[in-house]
Specification:
Layout (H helix, E strand, L loop, with lengths): L2 E6 L7 H14 L3 E5 L2 H7 L2 E3 L27 H14 L3 E6 L1 H12 L3 E6 L15 H22 L2 E6 L6 H10 L3 E3 L7 H13 L5 E6 L5 H12 L3 E5 L11 H20 L4 E6 L2 E6 H6 L6 H10 L1
Parallel strand pairs: 1-2, 1-4, 4-5, 5-10, 6-8, 6-9, 7-8
Antiparallel strand pairs: 2-3, 10-11
Helix pairs in contact: 1-9, 2-3, 5-6, 6-11, 7-8
The protein binds adenosine-5'-triphosphate.
């Protein structure tokens, strides 16, 4: 009987649990023995495995976070740490490892592959910053959440005739800010991929109030600056009452959206199909609504790009 282990690593995202459930249930249906590794690569080093049956993954599909828990492990980046992890996997007779996480976690998966372990990557991060997939699991849920929170801020900003500067997550990727900004009809979006013009933003915000607007919303991706700085600059230039809000970790929680549940189910299911097709050493994703895969090298060599056309949509509609 073939053995497969699943781990979640790096920052958690909504939909990781549904991906674990999908790999587990598809694996069990195809006579695999399935294990969960607790706390990502740290758990591989600590030999912290739990056997997963169908019951262990019931009631998980709609829960945020990851019930296997996630961690960052500096030790795993070292040859010594990796040697211990590989030894533990071999001692357990594990043939395949599924790593659910972001870019760093994919590098960990590639390291295991170099040691002869057959690995798969499932893109689990809210940031949407993994190349060669249109989405990462958690991104859609976060987008919906941020759009709702921006709406809440709009209500109170409007009552008090204020400018709201809202900082979103996303590391060096502006996708959350850009898409939530379009979905919320905000007045300005600052993303790391495009040099911001703070003078113009402040002037536009001021002009909006002069035309009779009762509020203004500016979204800043964390990679483009911080909300306090941007709010200060807008206040200095416009004289308007400007407030900063950092949304923070609230963006990473909550029940996954229907899209993320279906997407992660498709990815997890496809891993087991790929094993049967003899494919391994790849990261999965979705392109043009098809589940696709690429080698880790291809993914690392590709560049994650902002959708310039989408930015144009924002600029033309603002
Ligand atoms: P997120 O984008 O949500 O932060 P991530 O997967 O990019 O997720 P990282 O902290 O970069 O998060 O990586 C998670 C873990 O992957 C690290 O703690 C480490 O154990 C492992 N890892 C990262 N880079 C490497 C590497 N170059 N070699 C081996 N392992 C790595």
């Amino acid at each position: 009987m073939k053995k497969i282990a699943i781990l979640t690593s790096g920052g958690d995202s909504q939909g990781m649990n549904s991906a674990i459930r999908a790999v587990t249930r598809s694996g069990l249906a195809n006579n695999f023995e399935v294990y969960g590794v607790r706390r990502g690569f740290k758990g591989l080093i600590k030999n912290d495995f739990i056997k997963l049956g169908t019951k262990e993954v019931s009631d998980k599909l709609y829960r945020g976070g990851t019930f296997l828990q996630s961690a960052r492990s500096e030790t795993f980046k070292t040859p010594e740490g990796q040697a211990v992890a590989v030894e533990n996997l071999k001692a357990k007779g594990i043939d395949y490892v599924v790593v659910i996480g972001g870019d760093g976690s994919y590098r960990g998966a590639q390291a295991l592959k170099r040691h002869g372990i057959k690995t798969f990557g499932i893109p689990g991060t809210i940031d949407n910053d993994i190349p060669l997939t249109d989405f990462t699991i958690g991104f859609d849920t976060t987008l919906n959440l941020v759009t709702e929170l921006v709406g809440n801020l709009r209500d109170t900003m409007s009552s008090h005739e204020r400018v709201s500067v809202i900082e979103t997550m996303g590391r060096n990727c502006g996708d959350i800010a850009l898409q939530a900004g379009i979905a919320s009809g905000v007045d300005a979006i600052l993303i790391p991929e495009i040099e911001p013009d703070i003078e113009k933003i402040a002037a536009d915000v001021k002009a909006g109030f002069d035309r009779g607007k009762s509020h203004s919303i500016v979204i800043v991706a964390e990679g483009a600056g911080n909300a306090d700085d941007v709010a200060k600059k807008i206040k200095e230039r416009s004289g308007l009452d400007t407030r900063a809000t950092v949304l923070g970790h609230i963006q990473r929680g909550g029940s996954p959206s229907s899209f993320d549940r279906v997407f992660s189910s498709r990815l997890g299911h496809r891993v087991i199909e790929l094993i049967q097709e003899g494919v391994e050493g790849v990261g999965l994703g979705m392109e043009h609504n098809q589940i696709t895969y690429h080698t880790f090298e291809e993914i690392f060599n590709a560049k994650n790009k902002i959708d310039k056309k989408l930015y144009q949509v924002f600029e033309d509609l603002v």
